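Subject: mismatched residue count in predicted assembly?

I count 802 residues in my input, but I want to confirm that the predicted structure covers every chain. Input:
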Amino acid sequence: MKYGYFDDTCREYVITKPDTPEPWANYLGSPEYGAIISNQAGGYSFVRSGANGRLLRYRFNSVPADQAGRYIYVRDRESGDYWSGSWQPVGKPLDLYRSECRHGLSYTVISSSYSGISTETLYLVPLGKTYEVWRLKIRNEGGRKRAVSVFGCAEFTNDGNYEQDAVNLQYTQFITRTCFHRNRILQLHNECCRRNADGSNGEERFFGLAGAPVSSWCGDREEFVGPYRSYANPIAVERGDCGNVPNYGGNSAGVLQADLDLEPGEERQLCFVLGAHPDAEADKILSEYEDPRCIETQWEELKDFWEEKLCRFSVHTPDENFNHMVNTWNAYQCFITFIWSRAASFTYCGLRNGLGFRDTVQDIQGILHLVPEMAFERIRLMFSGQTSCGAGLPLIGFHHEPGHVKLPGEPGYDYDPYRADDALWLFPTVAQYIGESGNIRFLDEVIPFADHGEADVYEHLRRAVRFSLEHGGAHGLPVGLYADWNDCLRMGEQGESVFVAFQLYQAMRILLDFARIRKDGDTVSELEEQSRKLRKTLNDVCWQGDRYLRGIRESGEKVGSRDDPEANLWLNPQSWSVISGCADEERARAALETVHQRLNTEYGAVIMDPPYREHAFDGARMRLFLPSVKENGSVFSQAQGWLILAESLMGHGNRAYEYYRECSPAEQNDRAEIRRLEPYVHGQFVEGPQSPHEGRAHVHWLTGTASTVMVACVRGILGLRPTAEGIQIQPAVPSDWKEFTIDKFYRGKRLHITVKNPNGAQGGPVRIVLNGETLPDSLVPFGQLENENELVVTMPGADPAQ
Ligand code: NOJ
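Triage response: the counts match. Full output below for your records.
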């Protein structure tokens, strides 16, 4: 079933059928002032921390779902009938009530039409501001005068700490009150022991109205909703009067009512504004919105902000769904993961007190093709989270102080022990950063270690390799430590991880390139020697004829071996054998073929098969999950990105695209009742064939899938691989793509690329004509670029992959 469509002209996803299988969300603002909003206007807001700065209350995983929210009620003062500007919470019958939700880039517009009155509510956080605006336009569409009341309603938390607010009621219910001042409700906290800068008492939040006088107000949730009622039928709306009631020691809310008389065809505009600012500031903020142009200008600024980023890379291929995702939605999701990390969503409530190392280093990759300069600071931060022994700290705290961080094992350290993979993600990220930016001098930049000392980036990378080499098991492969990429796989101090071994091999190849550039002969020899050894071990010990193992336990038992009754084939070692360059052509083909035969489903390839039921070892913590769910054999979505990339690197465009389509959210737009998650964002995983809900996706928005699939599209399918010297171009596309174009902004130059595929190839070496001149190979040297460049890339005649 279809609930909406992509509107590329304005980069919006438009929900036309409001009863979506789940609340479909969007992000507003930034973690400085963050807001999440669903197509029903459900969601919450916070200042700086979803866990500790929560402003609006949201009841996670509750019944009714997706409440509370940013509700606007409309009441007909003659008939007493009332509805909401979003379909929920009142939920009028859908044959009488029409609704549309447009999720755009950091704004959402929800429109309604009912009983001759139309509304349009724009929700946004203006750029650089720490408050949110709900701009309501209300219009009388009929031929007679209408008398209506509008109620804007926000449910405050009593305490900014999410957990305290939810459960410590003997405290949090008695610390706040609300009062009304001119055009706004103020919420005060712990009033007697706080003093604001302007001399007033108590931390203040406000919910105000501009554009019409307040005709009545309510600061108390229970008084607004009424006993044994809900947001579907609040007593104050039903009555048509908020009663001017403050809260004193109960649940605070902000409800403001405005009574309007609308002539036929007349439209009025109101702005509700919510934030955490002292009253004097609130007064100033609200007064700006008395001018209706203010919000329009801010909306334009927001659109320009995103357009400026996204216009740096766009594709026009025969597949519209691919275009929607690569040009807008996958790109936007990459920014959201980059900016918000795993902070807050409808799944995460914001409790993680920092940036996960691997997640963040991966997230960076998702925006590098667009704004490498934006990634720069974040890359430096991540290097400062590397310890002097070379490992990555699993979490970089929000108050990270390089040079002073306690390490795993030391007193005062309170997070997980080292993981085997964290620092190794730095290698592809740095290589891609240098390729996009040309900033090879970054290798010389000196950055402190988390614990003590400092070194240049090149040395940081050398230590990361050394850490993995020094933590080797009986076969010389890196040990698994607390976990590798797979959080559920605990191979321990002696058990070895084949996935990490492939990562290490990739890391050494990247470092070799850097060592050659720096003419560091000793490091070149050492890395050549070590990488040769590692490759041999991987191929001698871990190859099983049609697959690579996943690991070797301390006892010597193999994980992911052909004869294992369960989990005898794992996806990641197969894709990474190709990505790392470790498998030869024959083995790469065989491994990928095994994946296709054994792991592929309608929704992508499962992470391993069969799921654990009875034969898991102690370190296989995925057995905690149901079979075909999460790491226990689901279609783990991030891993699809690596599979697509691996097939693309082999020149198997058809196969790469088959996997892409299976896991692309946009491809499921017509079957949204199965996938359930937003059709415009990737999730963390999709339930596999052994679940009764095969195809159902989970954990929206904040997932490494976004960046990994983006990298697979840009570097894999589209085949654009920037290096220090220029861009390598080698697409791997479905053979029925006869022509497509790519526009790319590259180090200040514009590239207009037309790829021609007259003979229906799906990969292989290409011929490139740059500004009329044929290049000798697939590298477009940066030095040969003009400001504007026309590139014609012709794919080969014979199909090398068949
Ligand atoms: C989710 C975590 O955020 C990510 O870091 C991890 O790699 C995957 N789970 C796989 O376990």
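Residues 356, 358-359, 485-488, 631, 704 surround 1-deoxynojirimycin (CB under 6 Å). Marking this ticket as 'not a bug'.
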